[in-house]
Amino acid sequence: MNKAGKFVIEQPFPMRKQVYKHLRDQILSNEIKPGGRLVEAQIAKTLGVSRTPVREAVHLLERDGFIESIPRVGYRVRKLIMEELDEIFEIRKANELLACTWAAKKAPPGSLKSLEKNIKMTRAALNNDQPELFLDLDQEFHSILVQASGSHHLAGICRQLGRLMLRYRIDSITDNDAVTGALKGHIAIYEALKNKDEKGLKTALEDHLCHSKQDIDTRLTVR
Question: Quick one: which of 89, 18, 25 has its CA closest to 47?
Answer without folding.
Answer: 18
